[in-house]
Amino acid sequence: MFLNPIMLFGLGGVSIPIIIHLLNKRKFERVVWAAMRFLKVSVERNQRRIQVEDILLLLVRCLLVALLALVLARPVACTHSSAGLLGQAAVTAVIVLDNSGSMSATDGAESRFAKAKKAAQQIVDTLPTGSSVALMLASDAVAREGGIPEPTHGLKFAKDQIDQAPLSDRATNLYPAIRDAVATLKGRQTSRKEIYVITDGQAAGWAQDKDVQRTLEEVKAEVRARVILVGEPEPANLAVTELRLAEGLAPAEQPLKFEVEVRNYGKQEKNDVTVNFGLDGATSAIDSTLIKAIPADGAARAVIYLRPKGEGYHTVRAWLATGDHVPFDDARTVALRTVKNYPVLVVDGAPGAGPRDSAARFLRAALQPVERAELPDYFIKVTTIASTELDQARLDDYEVVCLVNVPDFSEAAANGFEKLLRRGGGLWFFLGDRVNRSYYNEKLFKQRQILPAAIGEALGRADQNEVAFALQAKGYQHEITTLWNDPAAGMLASARFFRAFDLGELAAAPAQPAPDGPGAPRVVLRFADGQAGGPLAGKPAMVERAWARGRVALFASSADTAWNDMPRRPAIVPLVRRTLGALLTNTAEQLNLRVGAAFTLRPGDEYLNRTATFSRPTPIGKKESVPPEAVSINRDKDGVQVSYDKTDVAGTYKVAIAGDVAPRYFAAQPDPAESSLDRITPAQIDVLGKVAHVVDWKAGMILEEKIEKDRVGTELWIPLAIAALFLATSETLLAHRFSKAK
User: Looking at residue 84, what is its pLDDT?
Assistant: First the structure.
């Protein structure tokens, strides 16, 4: 138990009744009176009882004064080891304020983030004189702007920073901020250390709850942790979780197909959901689409065609016509660059074949499915060369290089492939009877790690067309092939294959993907299971992988009709078109980032030392726009570049480069997982409660009282005041009784 030492001087008042008692003690003058001898016997009989009564009254009065002194001292019962001897010692605190996307959810009047900021300011108000506080804005990372990295004694400044704290659209993972908060407090010479985590309790934020528990358990003896849960559960939420250019290609002055996905995170089906679309920052809709029904805990997709005007950078925004209580995910923006044409190089490994049997001819027809008279105006421009001319080809002039049954390559050509991929181009390998499998596996799969899979044995017989196997007929998962999940799109499985290579050995995914190296392989298409898949049942038919800024695809069979009849099937055109778009996806992905990711622009040597000015979208809840920021364009090992990583808010970012007439745009998009508002479970709260004091802060709750009680313990002045009142009453009754004539 701890007492206020100043008020404890009041205990000296206990001496007052004693002094009064001694001063008022009767002094007798002896007078000899004959009649008194008859009273002497009676007085001596009552003298002992009177002394006992006087002492009892004295004790009651002394105890009453002592209790009044204790009431004024406000003693507390404190059980935590970090409490100071005086009960109100200075505190070094770290406030972890969740500013992730889910904190934008409202109850119709106030957002969770607004409530969290109020809670944070109340916490600052409870800090005793001489305390210091740090502020960390936390989502899936600790924000570098808006916080207070080191504890400050300026508590008013801290409250101002809390009031101005911005809301982000990032995902949630509170462990990094809690880890940093503990590191901030470690080693500080102070007896009172406290961490406050203010969050909405979204389950996604506690994915590393075991790491949180371990971290707080290690410092439990010296750091007091509190978790403040704000906001009510939100039972319904619609979110625009995907917006993409369907085929990946964006030819200028052409209608472009966009796919939008709206997910229902609620427990009831949503009907007649209208999605609006706008172009290039327009706030009014230029078109809309109606989704008839979205099942509970499910999603629905819609397609729309839009036509951006002219070449250059454009943005497309999709948003729910009727918003809900979670605004951060009600809209989604995609950036794209329309171009006049896409130059494609087809390298023919068997140029001596007749024109009707040439694999390059079939592939060219699929790339340019128009009449000869329309070819000059068609946006895909195809150049065909023999494999012997590859070393002399200027690969910088092409976006995609297709290698058709090419036996092998020189070192110069392989170096050219890597350069093409690093600048964001695409490589597409078609196999055949001329391919040197050993060379491909040794040079391109093992050494350079370009191929997404090793090339195994060729299985099947091309000379027995009656024995054929097929591609999978359902369950398409890759974005290239998801089109065929709709029966109206036709069938890929109708194509017949007679011979193909086994691509069963996929490349290993890198432990730590590097921006200038290979990514994890992904299966685009498989051969059918069981007998329909023949000798390659269930094996990959096409595999792709990202490589630096580019992408590589590998097809297990030939591009002509020697090993399959795919070139004669209607599905070949959309398959080639969608694959071509996917090979250029990484270039598009440079314009479309996950919120919080860094944007890198490589504009060319002529831009060295120029200035790029970045303009950010305005965060939810902020009225004033964010001032633009100028960044110098420099050179690194991969060339002239400029980077920008302040992308915490979803929406359109504008890049204006000195000397350029037209600006460039890119877009940041929220993580769909952040739209799930499921709360941390009671079991997780129980586990968390072992290392932290968890407070479910409801409307009207006075947070200061709970923190004060938790900080200094349970105050005992109320029961002591009741005891003092009881003693005062007892003293009055006893004094009245003892004063009666005896």
Answer: 45
> What angle do helix axes 37-73 and 717-738 make, rounded to 10 degrees?
170
CATH code assigned to 342-584:
3.40.50.880
Q: Report the C-alpha gap between 691 and 708 in whole angstroms.
A: 19
d(C-alpha 431, C-alpha 630), whole Å: 49
Helix and strand numbers (H, E) in the chain are: 14, 32
Check residue 716 and give its pLDDT.
Answer: 64
Residues, the chain, total?
742
- What are the backbone dihedrals phi and psi of residue 171, each rounded to the nearest 5 degrees, phi first? -75, 175
At the second CATH level, the architecture of 591-676 is Sandwich (2.60)
Query: Block means of pLDDT (10 residues each) for the chain, length 742 residues?
Result: 52 60 55 58 64 73 75 59 54 96 92 94 92 95 91 95 95 96 89 93 93 94 94 92 91 94 95 96 93 96 94 96 94 95 94 69 93 93 95 94 96 95 94 95 95 96 87 93 88 94 92 82 96 94 94 96 93 94 83 93 90 93 86 86 94 95 95 94 93 86 70 62 76 69 56
Same fold, 92-234+682-697 and 236-339: no
Q: Could you state, in order of their start, the residue ranges of all structural domains in the chain?
A: 7-75+717-738, 92-234+682-697, 236-339, 342-584, 591-676
Q: How many angstroms separate the CA atoms of 609 and 630, rounded?
A: 12
State residue 427 phi and psi, 5-degree precision: -125, 135
Dist CA 69 CA 720 (whole Å): 10
Query: Would you say 85 and 196 are in contact if contact means Cβ atoms under 8 Å apart?
Result: no
| First and final C-alpha spacing in the chain | 45
Architecture (CATH level 2) of domain 236-339: Sandwich (2.60)
3-state secondary structure 606-647: HHCCCEEEEECCCCCCCCCCCCCEEEECEEECCEEEEEECCC
Q: In what order do the strands lie in the sheet with 639-644?
A: 599-601, 639-644, 634-636
3-state secondary structure of 462: coil
The closest alpha carbon to 674, from 34, 70, 72, 98, belongs to 98
The SS3 assignment for 36 reads helix
Partners of 251 in the beta sheet? 339
Q: Is the pTM of this model over 0.70?
A: yes
- Contact status, residue 266 vs residue 325, Cβ threshold 8 Å: no
Distance CA 14, CA 73 (A): 15
* Class in CATH terms, 92-234+682-697: alpha beta
Pairing state between β 132-138 and 92-98: parallel
Rg (C-alpha) for the chain, rounded Å, is 39
106 by Cβ neighbours in 10 Å (0-12 / 13-18 / 19+) ranks as buried
